[in-house]
Design brief:
single chain; alpha/beta; Oxidized Rhodanese, domain 1; 5-stranded parallel β-sheet; globular; Thiosulfate_ST/Rhodanese-like; Rhodanese; Rhodanese-like_dom; Rhodanese-like_dom_sf
């Protein structure tokens, strides 16, 4: 339910506006604009930071994001796509990210390259879309983001640390860095 404020709260207007069948005040609309503006500002800041990292590291794509930053960018950017390039075995046995586009960069077993990777990406994502590539640790997604950039995709970002992150002192993944260790949304395959 939307509360209609007295007309003094409409920034000088005499009446509230009708919007999608509901009465909304200018104060409410103004608050939405401020929230949207803040979100766009945060998105711009995150992308600028990722682009700065890419320049500093000499990366061949638009930027590099931490898992938490990538999750926030995916949430804030209309049309952004998270592209998970892990193998089917990894997706099935380690876990999936809800809503991600899943295109294998390499096939298990043997890790033969997916020669149709770019064709599959073109079928599932617009070349002008903001694309966030993720794999297990950030290495395959680095190569996928570079290949997509070279193929003409304009806004490619790599998710540093990947889904599982680096190995811990015991040689195990999933506890040091990565999407899953950051507590971001995932589900068992």
């Amino acid at each position: 339910m939307v509360r209609i404020l007295p007309s003094t709260h409409y920034f000088g207007a005499a009446r509230p506006r009708r919007f999608l069948g509901q009465t909304r005040s200018f104060a409410y609309t103004g608050a939405l604009i401020l929230v949207a503006s803040a979100a766009m500002g945060k998105l711009s800041d995150l992308l600028a930071l990722a682009q700065q990292r890419a320049r500093e590291l000499g990366l061949p794509y638009a930027g590099a994001l931490t898992p938490a930053e990538a999750h926030e960018v995916a949430r804030l950017a209309p049309g952004a796509k998270l592209v998970d390039v892990r193998t089917r075995a990894e997706l099935d046995f380690v876990g999936r990210i809800p809503g991600a586009i899943e295109i294998e960069w390499q096939f298990y077993p043997g890790y033969a390259p997916n020669t149709h990777f770019l064709a599959e990406l073109k079928r599932q994502a617009d070349p002008e879309s903001l694309l966030l590539f993720i794999c297990r640790s950030g290495h395959r997604s680095h190569r996928a983001a570079a290949a997509a950039t070279e193929a003409g995709f304009a806004e490619c970002y790599n998710v540093l640390e990947g889904f599982e992150g680096d190995r811990d002192a015991k040689g195990q993944r999933g506890k040091v860095g990565g999407w899953r260790a950051a507590g971001l949304p995932w589900q068992q395959g």
